[in-house]
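Lab meeting prep.
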Amino acid sequence: MTAATTASAELVQSVDWAAIAPPVITAVVALVALVADLFVPPARRRLLGWTAIAGLAAALLALLPLRAGDRSTFCLTTDPATCSYTADHFTLAVQFLVLGGALLTALLALTETEPRRDGSTGLPAGEFWFLLLSSTAGAALLPASRDLATLVVALEVASLPAFALVGLRRGDRLSGEAALKFFLSSVTATAVTLLGVSFVYAATGSLHLTGVAEALPRVPGQLGTLATAGVALTLVGFAFKTAAVPFHFWVPDTYAGAPLPVAAYLSVVGKAVGFTGLILVAVIAFPAYADVWGPALAVLAALTMTAGNAAALRQSAARALSAVRLLAWSSVAQAGYLLVPVAAAAYTGAAAVGATIAYALMYAVVNLGAFAVVALVARTHPAKRIADFRGLYADRPAAALALAFFLLCLAGLPPGIIGLFAKVTVFSAAVDAGLGWLAAIMAVNVVLGLSYYLRWTAVLFRAPARAEAPVPAAAATVSAGTATAIAPVREPVPLPLAAALALTTVAAVALSGYPQLILTFAARNLF
């Protein structure tokens, strides 16, 4: 009896609840929002949004006790050093990006879930907050995953609610079409990833990333082809998630058709999910195949940045071009820059991915800030065309200056110092890895990107297309048979939207003044 009891005790795992608190808090608040939606009257549905925001803030605060980066849980009883969940510095950096990005998305979405003045309904509050928080919980779990099973589960928890979020605008044909394209591409990526993972497991007999890394160099000759195919398919599956060329075709239509806060969420958190998974499997699980995935990712990086910039440059001259579609192509180009240090890690080691994390943090702040200004303009110009931003400085100078600063950061031009430093860090990672040709292609693409970023910036400061004479406060009938002219009323900026814009602006300015806050990741061993 004593021996049986001892053996049974050895199988019991202790759970470090503090380590898993960020994704757990987010998941619990998601369930709270879903259940509360059944009882909260429609007039008080705004409380669900504030509950979601409070939950995300609490999840962010839960990262503070973990800042040492030395926590692990769900470890093997036979090998305590092999764990399925690890809260190291890499995990904390990505979780901060994910939870912070979701918090800013929630601020952008708060007004979208309320009834509109024209009597139409906004996004269904209960469903929206549940889906957003569920996806965020999966995205926060993924960087801590250290076995292939947990990695795939976290990937699907992050992806499945995102399908519904894209198509949540009921009765909107574009939203439904965007959701379908996103769904088909993601399902394909998942199928390819699962097939690759199954091949890797069959060849190595291990699901833990460190176990796979140890077993791959010793795979028997008869299983070599199976292991190679598994590695390739797994990397291709995550390349879909990162929107790397040629797996980027779903991005423009999905962003343009999705509700604006959802497009902002996908551009930052969705991209973080793909890159996190790619880094984990490539750098930790597949270092034995670095001579294969290193050159492949370098080529993908070159193709992705070139295709994204070329498409954005070709379309930026169109007067009817959607600002969201331009940001979508910009995100494809930025994905190419983010891939460069991951490719460099094949030559210089895992420390190179710090440049990707630093660049991703910069990109998240300024891209969400750009979406916040687009959301502000969309309140009076629902088409969200680039032409609708003409004269924004005359109408809302603070918003115009903020958007100009965000665009200069994305372009890598002063005074957007953080964008410039982040690009230099990525460029240095390529040079240090001996990828001079990739650094040259990146330099050319940075110049190409200047064109459409500066063109949009210039639009902000042009005189309005049509200056209308002031009209009396009430209305003025010009003559018989003509319509009544009513003076336009400038709507106040909703508090949540103003808060999102203020937070991103302050963060971008602070990082430009003190870029070392995130550039330290580029020189830090995150694993």
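Slide two material, second protein:
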Amino acid sequence: MRSFLPAFALVTLAACASSPEPTIPTPPAEPAPSSAPAASAAPAPEAPAPQAVAGERLAADTPKTTVAGNSFIAPGGWTMTVKGKATLLEAPEAGSRIVLVDVQAKDADAAVALAWAAYGAEVKWPLRPTIDAPDKDGWTRVRIYDYQTSPNEKRGVSVMTRFANDTWTVVIYDMEDAVGDKRGAQVSQIYGRLLPKGQARESFAGKKANTLDPARIAALGKFVETAQQKLGVPGVSVGLIQGGKVVFAGGFGVRELGKKAAVDADTKYIIASNTKALTTLMLAKLVEEKKLTWETAATGLLPSFKLGDQDTTSRVLVKHLICACTGLPRQDLEWILQFQGLTPDGALATLGTMQPTSKFGELFQYSNPLAAAAGFIGGHVAFPKLELGKAYDEAMRTRVFEPLGMKGATLDFKRAQTGNYAVPHAPDLDDKPARALAAVNDAVIPVRPAGGAWATVNDVLKYVQMELAEGKLPDGKQYLEKDVLLARRAPQVSISPDATYGMGLMVDKKWGVTVVHHGGDLIGFHSDMMWLPEYGVGAVVLTNGDPGWYIRSVFQRKLLEVLFDGRPEADTEIATMGKMYFEHRATERKLLTSPADAAASAKLAAHYTNAALGEIKVSRAGAATIFDFGEWKSEVASKKNPDGTISFVTTVPGMMGVELVVGSAAKRTLTIRDAQHEYVFNEK
């Protein structure tokens, strides 16, 4: 099951891309405040296993090859079985598999048919239109085949073809949604490290960096402007640092569609999950002040802190609060549908209902409420007499924003949205850029340490400058001890063989050089900050429109190409990604009936309720059917699923794709799911 538009891919990973590569790229998930009791786990029916010989269970991530000799990394804990031309990788949870099949065929369609035969599984789902993807890492003729599963199957099925050395390699993704989400980093590892026989990924290790002179800066600017035009993003602000100096800070485009005011280096944007690194910087200052250590138990600082699992609670140290390593999964629907009146205390209380779905330290799983707890606990330590939110705000002002000279940075949404600030945008149902439903971004306020800061390019450049100077300010003053600063980059959990997550920071060595970075995504706001410690180079990218996540993610590759004269891949990649994105939207749009089917709409109750997510009121305005969630509302389209069930899907720009499935029982219900949880709304 896949939601209508990537904009509701629960807007991850704040920059932590862990979604499986075979699907259409989606925005990284973002701060997920929670305001209600934990949802129940959403079990999925197990798919029948194909006939295969006994496999090898891997104790750790292990380099392997396919039958044709293509290299990949098989994840630890998975079982690998070779069956003829097929290499089957089964997750520890039975019934979820990735299959790599090497075949000789006349074209991609024939290769796919042969791959399914080699796998031995039944292809029972309608095939959506295929989408061609860019050549990459020595692979050509890359094509994505996406199958329309029904929401109640709780399963994703897709295929990707690749061609090299006169052989097709077909990758089948056949996984329960919950498993794919939980093990997303491992899935991405399989895809990301799959290389043709004899092929090595381009590496910039040991190369001298070029000077970012006017010509090279212009190349980066052209990349941004071209991407902006292809994706329909109204404004992008960019900053560059080299050798301790800002070599560029400016903007491209406008703050708001239909108005002339341009974005620049002083335009305020929500920086979303980039806030996490600033939150851990505040904690680092408290470590330096000896008010806590990275090894201090969270409950020792705030006795009311707890998780749904008592054993996990007892083992959570300060460093674990923001390491994405405690086993808590994303649980985002509560903040999207139920955030009115939520306070920091309420957000922390909700943590007590959240259960880990993997062992402590076992898997990379991103939890925004837990990251919020890190900031609120730090604020409480600094200002124990203040309310948690005010304490955090004051700790950030006194220990981060003011010392670094981040004059535009603020956690106050009202203050931020005055003067020179950007407005969020997203495509409408007809793919025209429009103002996005900005109200949902207010949901991050009660969990703002995870993603609620507003800042300008000039503000974030000052932070990056300090990181590159290992704790020193431009005047030479030591703002923070080097060892305390760098501890935030130490690996706490593996994302892939090339990347680790520390405390609100990722360290990535995909192209042979160290890139420290983080990104952030909320409705209509997508940003990234990155720096190369060995080369003294840093960059900041802030955008005000969906799908700006492509610009901020591919910009890193473009920067490396410009610095090291790398292969020119980024321009083609961003163009193809944009094409894929809009082709995917067009395909999904054809599945929808808008306005919603009148007969299906007439069968809806007027009022539904769920203990965790609140209420939905159903109304009509002419031919339109409206779902009012309280905090926000949207017209909905209807969709008939392959199994005969009916879904209603929101269509408001920025929050398109919230899908609710009509129940089949006598009592009227609507069911909504994220990957690892489901919630049933009952007629009130």
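Talking points for slide two:
The first strand starts at residue 40 and ends at 41.
Residues 570-590 form the longest helix (21 residues).
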